[in-house]
Write a structure and sequence with these properties.
Elements lengths: L2 H12 L7 H6 L8 H10 L5 H13 L3 H11 L4 H10 L3 H12 L10 H17 L5 H18 L3 H14 L4 H20 L17
Helix pairs in contact: 1-8, 3-8, 4-8, 5-7, 6-7, 8-9, 8-10, 10-11
């Protein structure tokens, strides 16, 4: 991939950073210099431990991803009244399931038809880079997964802003419980503001319409 494509892909990967130091991580994102221990930890959380699991998970993010469950829950909630939705969600006993329903309910009419695909594509980029870092896949395969994710993102979203909203909603959807989601949302709001408005933000330097064709 050329330099412009690499900058676009690295920007997508960097936006997975969360927490108090996330903006610093976005500005200084260097996936090929990520410590092996950190890359291993990130991949193991998603069950990526070897070449086979790397290819399977990366393909899953491109073809189904978290958006499959998000869309399933959205289709359930769309047929309920506001009051029924609130009652249904509050009655769920499993913490993660209840949190997922709450997140979907919050974004029910705020996302386009691609819902949280932005998170799937962003995760695919980051994990493809980390899988290469760990030696699970080749550089060519890593680049191909990342470029596929980038092209899908450009097709599903008109700009960085819409992509970020989708990505953030997907990250919330993936949290284990409401407490971790609330904590994430507080730090993410600050990060999103800086990413979208700061003069030195990569989003001001990298065109959403970068040509990602090989």
């Amino acid at each position: 991939m050329n330099k412009e494509q690499q900058r676009f892909i690295d920007t997508m990967g960097s936006l997975n950073y969360t927490g108090d130091q996330s903006y610093y991580g976005i500005l200084h994102y260097k996936p090929r210099k990520l410590p092996y221990s950190q890359a291993k930890k990130i991949l193991e959380y998603w069950g990526i431990v070897d070449t086979e699991s790397a290819h399977a998970t990366l393909t899953w993010f491109l073809e189904e991803g978290l958006r499959k469950d998000f869309n399933r829950i959205r289709n359930i909630l769309l047929f309920m009244s506001d009051a029924d939705r609130e009652h249904w969600v509050s009655s769920l006993e499993d913490e993660k399931t209840r949190n997922q329903f709450k997140v979907v309910n919050r974004y029910l009419h705020k996302l386009n038809s691609s819902s949280i695909a932005g998170a799937d594509y962003g995760f695919c980029v980051m994990f493809a880079q980390n899988a290469f870092r760990m030696g699970f896949i080749s550089l060519n395969d890593s680049d191909e997964y990342a470029l596929q994710a980038g092209r899908k993102a450009q097709k599903d979203f008109p700009n960085w802003s819409d992509y970020l909203i989708s990505h953030s909603a997907g990250a919330e959807f993936n949290k284990e419980n409401e407490e971790t989601t609330v904590t994430f949302m507080k730090s993410q709001q600050f990060t999103l503001t800086r990413v979208l408005t700061a003069p030195n933000s990569p989003l001001r330097k990298v065109s959403w319409n970068t040509n990602l064709a090989l």
